[in-house]
Each structure stands twice: as C-alpha cells, then as structure tokens.
Amino acid sequence: MKTVLITGASRGIGAGCAALFAERGWRVLANYNSSAEAAEALRQKTGCALYRADVADSAQVLAMRNAIEADGLFPDVLINNAGRALFGLFQDIKPEDARAMYDVNLFGTLNCCRAFLPGMISRKGGCIINISSVWGEVGASCEADYSAAKAAVIGLTKALAKEAGFCGVRVNCIAPGIIDTDMNASLSAEDISAIVDEIPMERLGTPRDVAEAAWFLASDAASYITGATVDVNGGWT
To answer: N or C: which terminus of the chain has fewer CB atoms within 10 Å of its end residue's CB?
Structure first.
C-alpha cells in the first residue's frame, strides 16, 4: 500500500485530496494545525492518520516527520497544500500579516520538502506535489504578496525537479484557479458570477478537480513528468 502525506488536509483542497486517495486505496497521512474538529471529521470519514504540526515552524515539521517514521511510515508522495490567503492593497498590508502568509505558503512548503526529500532520495523514489495558484503564474491585483509566494513555489518546483530527478524523485506543481473552498468564501455572489463569466468551463473548480490532478501526478502514468506546472482552472488563463 502506498502512502501519501497531505499538509493542510483538514479542509478544502487538502480534504479533497485525502478523500480521493483514501477512496482509491492509499494510506493517507493528514497534517493539520488549528482545525482539530475538521481533522477529526476527516479521520472518521477516510480512516486517515492525523499529524498535527504548523508547517511554518521547521521544528514542528521535523517532529512530525519523526512521529511518522516512528509509526513505521515513509511517505511515497508529499502534497504540500497548506496555505492561507491575504487580500488587500500592497501598500496597506501589514508586514506581520505578509510574513505570516509567506511563512505558511512558501516556507511551509520549503520546510516539508527539506524534511521529507532526503528520505525519498535515500529510497530512490518518491513524488512531491506542490500546490501553487493561477496567481503564481499571472499575478493578481490586491494579492501581490500571495502571488509572489505562489510564484516562488513554482520556481522551487522546477529547481527541485532538476536536483532530485537523478534519484527517481519527481517534483511537480498544480496551479488551481478559483476553487470553491473556504479560502474564497469572502467573494460575493456578484464577484463569483463575474468570474464564472470569464471561465470557459462556466463554473468554479472543486477540490475534487484538483485532487484528480494530484492523483494523476502521483501515479505511474506520470512517471516521466517532473518540473511541470499543471493548470486546473477551467481554461480561465
């Protein structure tokens, strides 16, 4: 049985990935931080194992890795999904708010890669899937810091793919468009209608849409794909 570790798995895209991988017979390790109730609901639904850690804290990530390995588990796939939004005019964003967002969206991904990549290299195989955003590719007004963090995740993906490919480790990225999750709950009905009007598929994405892309990238069908960014945005860009 293959094992997948998903960060930020208690809701949204992470929960969608956990549900799909569990449904298809994988052992799911679900990381969460503050959403204990939602994480427990996910455990009851999927049978996943829960590991609590703030991915922005490298010490907590290492402790999580040690706990996973102490349980005799070694992830074949790491999905770096944990993230947080940050909206507002660039000049109005408080430095501490920007730092908190970078700490999760960028440094959280870096921390998890640093913790789990060495094991994959030693086992000569594995797959890392980083969740970026369409805004990491094209930028978004009033989300400059968020766009910058997600663009950095794409750059990290391409670089690590070159470093780790020699030992059979693949590193890819998914860039979702507007997905119907709590992160976009602040959008008004008018905002959503205007966005949908611009999307060729004429709907918002779902966590399942992103999970299916992650499933493909984790599978043997993608064995020659690394350093890629897969757009899951309904043709929006």
So the answer is: N
pLDDT at position 37 over 80: yes
Range of the domain at 119: 3-231
> Residue 186 pLDDT > 90, yes or no?
no
Question: What is the crossing angle of helices 207-218 and 12-23, to 10°?
Answer: 50
Q: Per the structure, how many domains does the chain have?
A: 1
Active site (annotated) includes residue 224: no
Catalytic entry in 32, 102, 146, 224: 146
Position 150 in a domain: yes
Instruction: Please report whether residue 127 resides in a domain.
Output: yes
Residue at 237 is within a domain: no
The residue among 205, 206, 208 whose CA lies nearest residue 236 is 205
> Is pTM, for the whole model, over 0.90?
yes
Give phi and psi for 210, each to the nearest 5.
-70, -40
